[in-house]
Amino acid sequence: MCQLLGMNGNTPTDICFSFEGFRTRGGLTDVHKDGWGIAFFEGPGCRVFLDVAPSAHSAVAELVRHYPIHSKNVIAHIRKATQGRVALENTHPFQRELWGRYWLFAHNGNLKDFAPTLDGSFVPVGDTDSELAFCYLLQRLRDEFGHAMPLRRPMFEFLAGITREIAAHGEFNFLLSNGNCLYAHCATKLAYIVRQAPFATAHLKDQDISVDFSEVTSPDDRVAVIATLPLTDNEAWTTIEPGTLMVFHSGVPAAAARTG
Q1: Mean pLDDT in runs of 10 for the chain (260 residues)?
Q2: Predicted local distance difference test score (pLDDT) of residue 27
């Protein structure tokens, strides 16, 4: 299966340390060789980098590694293909516009017998179950709330219902963001950590690299990192219970709902 990485913070932050450990799982320390992608929100804008090469050996990943983009919300994905051929159009994260904002989505899992009716407002470019689920999810949100973005709580509650519906078709771990917050759904595996003062040194599991966050942060900084599997071996990650949708805002969990 694929692996997910997300970041949500209260101030624009670079994800270089976490990305360095995560990218090695794409063809070096793990078997996810079927492409990768990462997307950063910068205000209402969004930078998206995609490549069909394994992330551990990707020249595009090297570019991202040496270009410390600062963002409040980041989504990354390394792919092990289940549905859909290995191609750029099937590489996550996927991006669409709704309510005048970009939305990003990445999925880990496999949806079976999932064939929702789309009305043409959001249409897949590729042939993955993931992009189809993203288009359907946005369509349902627009149908429910019309042409104006709702308040965060009713949108979260409705999103939990859509998630429950789609998850009935199989494994549906995902990360979703509109640049304001980051939604994370755990179907099987997902964990998170909140880093805030007093900051300490973290050490990657997949590489012998450490960083002392007290030297690169300010006392008011706070960031949540979400990953399929913990990225460090000397920090206390919180495992998200399967069948749970969470939303992170300003670097902390803001709400949770059961979906299974």
Answers
A1: 92 89 74 84 95 86 85 94 90 97 97 96 97 98 95 96 97 97 98 94 89 88 96 96 98 95
A2: 65
Active-site residue identified among 2, 46, 135, 181:
2
Domain range enclosing 121: 3-258
CA nearest neighbour of 19 among 225, 244, 236: 225
Count the domains in the chain. 1
DSSP 190-212: -EEEEEESSP-EEEBSSSS-EEE
Report the phi/psi class of residue 40: left, alpha or beta, with left for phi > 0 and alpha for psi in -120 to 50.
beta
Structure tokens at 254: 């803001």
One-letter amino acid of 2: C
**Whether 46 is catalytic:** no
- Considering Cα of 21, then 45, then 226, then 190, what sign does the dihedral take? negative
Q: Give dist(CA 196, CA 68) in Å, integer.
A: 20
Domain CATH code at residue 96:
3.60.20.10
